[in-house]
Write a structure and sequence with these properties.
The protein is 21% helix and 29% strand. The two termini are 35 Å apart. The structure holds succinic acid (SIN).
Length: 276
């Protein structure tokens, strides 16, 4: 097995493993270690059925079924991330971390590339541990006392599903009623590293503050977190299987392939309650 960092700050490619054939415990321990060290791992050259994809994800934890994504036929635990040639929007085009709107957010998401456009369709990632560490001590001491409200309502709720392009890809809009409150800086449950835990898609305000009061500071943090030196770019190949840490990274899927299909399968893994 070979592990190759993608950038100085985030991400690693893993070559020479075959999840369909099975991974022994020693190899899996090294893959898990790479996941915690790099935040995003991209396991190249896999050939997986949905059952094998689920089995790979279960090595990391129990499956979390996303209630909003349309599942793959016959596989309720596998979400479809599809863009057809005639669709304008793609899924996940704004910076976010999956499931921060849940009281117990997902550990990570495992995305498997089935069909890719001839060019484009990369995914960008950024490292929220670095985003935290590069703040001044003054700002850190203010943020460390704050909690933030995260919501799914404005992303998956009925108002958003008025758009037919989105309605075709998502379901259960009436279930987008839950908000969750998390510390603004969390202690990563596995690595112990402190991580800035707000994101542009789901964080709506600081707890106890109005949206108007929160916006300038949140916008400043959102700009800071996507400094190019914190990030990496994943260039997909058919058969690439990426796993990203939802507690330590954000991601954004580029929508730069008009007129082409991109089809991925996503499995989300259960996490634990987050604390400061
Ligand atoms: C997502 O946000 O889960 C999708 C990412 C991608 O399609 O690259």
């Amino acid at each position: 097995m070979e592990i190759r960092p993608i950038s100085e700050s985030l991400g690693a490619e893993i070559l020479g493993v075959d999840f369909a054939a099975g991974i022994d415990d020693g190899t899996f321990a090294r893959i898990r270690e790479a996941f915690h060290e790099h935040g995003v791992i991209v396991i190249r050259d896999q050939t997986l059925t949905p059952d094998q994809h689920l089995a790979a994800a279960r090595r990391f934890g129990a499956i979390n079924v996303n209630r909003f994504f349309t599942p793959v036929a016959g596989y309720p635990e596998v979400a479809e991330v599809r863009k057809e040639p005639d669709q304008e929007r793609n899924i996940g085009s704004n910076w976010h971390t999956d499931h921060s709107y849940d009281e117990v957010p997902a550990l990570g998401s495992m995305l498997y590339a089935l069909e890719l456009p001839p060019a484009g369709g990369d995914t960008l990632f950024t490292n929220l541990g670095l985003a935290w560490e590069t703040l001044s001590d003054g700002l850190k001491s203010v943020l460390a006392k704050l909690r933030a409200v995260h919501s799914s309502r404005h992303v998956f709720g009925p108002a958003r599903m008025a758009d037919p392009d989105l309605r075709a890809r998502f379901r259960n809009a009436e279930q987008a009623v839950q908000d969750a409150v998390h510390p603004v800086v969390i202690r990563h449950p596995e690595t112990g590293r402190r991580v800035l835990y707000v994101n542009p898609s789901f964080t709506v305000r600081f707890d106890g503050w109005t949206r108007e009061e929160s916006k300038p500071m949140l916008d400043w943090l959102f700009d800071h977190a996507v400094r190019p030196e914190f990030g990496c770019r994943v260039r997909w190949r058919k058969g690439s299987l990426a796993l990203w840490d939802n507690r330590a990274t954000w991601h954004m899927a580029l929508n730069d392939y008009p007129g082409h299909r991109r089809l991925m399968h996503r499995v989300t893994i259960e996490g634990t309650r987050l604390s400061a």
